[in-house]
């Protein structure tokens, strides 16, 4: 039922790859294919007051940028939305937009929060949550997979990780939905600033309350850790809790809704899943390669460097497109085929290199739990209305997917 027009590579000069509207309202597969073939390190010239930037589309070049800490940094922002609009206010404070030694040390602290004990605990409640949501959806008959199923899965897991009180969870979900993307083309940016600030304030209060406490939830770990002999300051505390929330919630939701749509659009793969012909871990990787919840990564060149034969200058804004690299025909056979048995499947959905997603285990567990639940509990999924794509150039997914599940 996907009705989005295909963006025409011949009109590339008029397309703005940083535009949320372009990504919400068009299919960009043909544009990525064209760029990979003819102009893999593409310079998008300035548009009005917006500065120009590089768009890197081939797997090998994306790999180079992700791994090259010496020439690419994140401190001006790690997405076009911030890089082209004055930088990231959490620069040098939130892990995802911090470089160098400080990044490595804070990352070490956060990593402890993903202990095996914590992940086992979350895994158990995750499957229960998913099964419960699917059973409710089955009882309802008609439902919205994005709102009724996906939106309730990652937030629960991330809230477990941070030990957020039950009563606050719905409030945080509403805020995260507005912080980075929008259901509408013309939503004022103030909505997103207000949402971000409210999330930060919430975590500031929570972290304060947990200073001096013992426990292995992420907020307690951050509130009581020492880096270079000093505790994290209030800004670092708030920003890193916020980073986990924002990094962990919306991406996971989009991976799940995208997986459900892919199963609807590929009935042979739905049958393979149902018949137990595919291994769940393998199927999870393909769902993640396919759905690309994070469309691109943003970097600033910190020194002159050559990528794919093109000269990039220090200070240039660089974007690496996961949505393109995950479909690179030189790496993935039949890249436009959704194939739950695909192996090997070294996609970039969680990026690569020093900023590789810290929550990748959790992201994988969520998608796997949904595939498992669908396989056991649902016999048929039908799409009953048009899906609605979100307006964002960084996040990719649906705010609505009307479906009918049959037991
Ligand atoms: C980083 C995607 C789930 C926390 C990243 C990056 C990507 C990504 C692409 C790299 C950004 C960059 O290179 O600039 C995803 C996807 C997910 C997911 C697709 C789900 C399907 C999670 C979860 C958490 C999380 C569940 C935490 C609970 C983080 C953090 C970073 C990160 C903290 C920054 C790591 C660093 O800079 O060292 N994620 N993520 N993510 N993600 Fe995720």
From TrEMBL:
<dbReference type="Pfam" id="PF00067">
    <property type="entry name" value="p450"/>
</dbReference>
<dbReference type="InterPro" id="IPR036396">
    <property type="entry name" value="Cyt_P450_sf"/>
</dbReference>
<dbReference type="GO" id="GO:0006707">
    <property type="term" value="P:cholesterol catabolic process"/>
</dbReference>
<dbReference type="InterPro" id="IPR001128">
    <property type="entry name" value="Cyt_P450"/>
</dbReference>
<dbReference type="GO" id="GO:0036199">
    <property type="term" value="F:cholest-4-en-3-one 26-monooxygenase activity"/>
</dbReference>
<dbReference type="GO" id="GO:0005506">
    <property type="term" value="F:iron ion binding"/>
</dbReference>
<dbReference type="GO" id="GO:0020037">
    <property type="term" value="F:heme binding"/>
</dbReference>
<dbReference type="InterPro" id="IPR002397">
    <property type="entry name" value="Cyt_P450_B"/>
</dbReference>
<dbReference type="GO" id="GO:0008395">
    <property type="term" value="F:steroid hydroxylase activity"/>
</dbReference>
<comment type="similarity">
    <text>Belongs to the cytochrome P450 family.</text>
</comment>
<protein>
    <submittedName>
        <fullName>Cytochrome P450</fullName>
    </submittedName>
</protein>
């Amino acid at each position: 039922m996907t009705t989005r027009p295909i963006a025409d590579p011949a009109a590339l000069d008029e397309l703005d790859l940083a535009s949320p509207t372009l990504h919400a309202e068009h299919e960009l597969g043909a544009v990525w294919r064209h760029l990979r073939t003819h102009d893999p390190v593409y310079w998008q010239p300035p548009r009005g007051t917006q500065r120009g930037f590089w768009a890197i589309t081939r797997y090998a070049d994306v790999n180079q940028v992700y791994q090259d800490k010496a020439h690419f940094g994140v401190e001006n922002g790690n997405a076009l939305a911030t890089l082209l609009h004055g930088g990231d206010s959490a620069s040098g404070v939130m892990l995802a937009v911090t470089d160098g030694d400080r990044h490595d040390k804070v990352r070490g602290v956060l990593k402890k929060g993903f202990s095996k004990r914590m992940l086992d605990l979350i895994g158990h409640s995750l499957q229960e949550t998913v099964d419960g949501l699917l059973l409710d959806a089955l009882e309802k008959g008609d439902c919205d997979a994005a709102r009724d199923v996906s939106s309730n899965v990652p937030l629960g897991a991330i809230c477990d990780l941070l030990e957020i009180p039950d009563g606050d969870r719905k409030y945080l979900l509403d805020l995260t939905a507005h912080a980075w993307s929008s259901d509408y083309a013309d939503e004022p940016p103030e909505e997103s600033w207000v949402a971000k600030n409210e999330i930060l304030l919430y975590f500031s209060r929570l972290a304060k309350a947990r200073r001096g406490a013992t426990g292995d939830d992420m907020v307690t770990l951050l509130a009581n850790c020492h880096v270079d002999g000093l505790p994290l300051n209030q800004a670092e505390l708030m920003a890193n809790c916020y980073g986990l929330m924002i990094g962990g919630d919306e991406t996971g939701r989009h991976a799940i809704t995208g997986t459900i749509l892919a199963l609807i659009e590929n009935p042979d793969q739905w049958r393979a899943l149902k018949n137990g012909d595919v291994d769940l871990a393998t199927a999870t990787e393909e769902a993640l390669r396919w759905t690309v919840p994070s469309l691109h990564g943003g970097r600033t060149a910190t020194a002159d460097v050559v990528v794919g034969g093109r000269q990039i200058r220090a200070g240039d804004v660089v974007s690496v497109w996961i949505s393109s690299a995950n479909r690179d025909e030189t790496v993935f056979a039949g890249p436009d085929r959704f194939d739950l048995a695909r192996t090997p499947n070294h996609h970039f959905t969680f990026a690569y290199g020093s900023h590789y997603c810290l929550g990748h285990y959790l992201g994988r567990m969520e998608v796997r739990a949904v595939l498992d639940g669908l396989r056991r509990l649902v016999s048929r999924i039908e799409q009953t209305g048009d899906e609605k794509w979100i307006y964002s150039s960084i996040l990719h997914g649906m705010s609505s997917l009307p479906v009918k599940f049959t037991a």
